[in-house]
Write the structure tokens for this entry.
Amino acid sequence: DIQMTQSPSSVTASVGDRVTISCRASQTLSSWLAWYQQLPGKAPKLLIYAASSLQSGVPSRFSGSGSGTDFTLTISSLQPEDFATYYCQQAHSFPFTFGPGTKVEIK
Amino acid sequence: QVQLVESGGGVVQPGGSLRLSCAASGFSFSSYGMHWVRQSPGKGLEWVAFMRHDGINKDYADSVKGRFTISSDNSKNTVYLQMNSLRDDDTAVYYCAKNWARAGAPGFSDYWGQGTLVTVSS
């Protein structure tokens, strides 16, 4: 199975800050990677698919990059509604696996 | 608009069974694969199962293989998760999610339901 790691596990930031979250896979994924946002008590929401494609309706301050085994989610200017937990997920091969999550908290 | 509504969760004893349902609307259900993903209380996300749009090809997480079965009824636009031999560590919120690509490769989940809670406890 492909193992996914994320760093950091949590980040404390202020509104307007640039935030970067990293995701690493134990095997190459090509571009079969997605990023999801989960607000407390809510279902996950797809932000980025195929490593760098912005899902329809997602603000352009979210961007994804990377390929192979190393990927990054960037929030260019953090907004109050962005305080949430972010997960990466590989969709290269079954079983699909998620990273452990990164919690973005308010400073 | 795409809508997914899960039901069927509840409290069940270890070793028991439960069937979850996910009613879909707002898209051509028979043209898309469907996923089940779960989240134990206070924990991260775990992918559970996927069924391709053809209803034939299915994949499962190792943790549920042989105990859980994904299926669908295109006449009802509904996907199911039959869960047998339930264990304490199956306690979680279970989400159904729509696959991103029409009749395409399994991959990302672009729409999710609100989830249904399954509690396995004696």
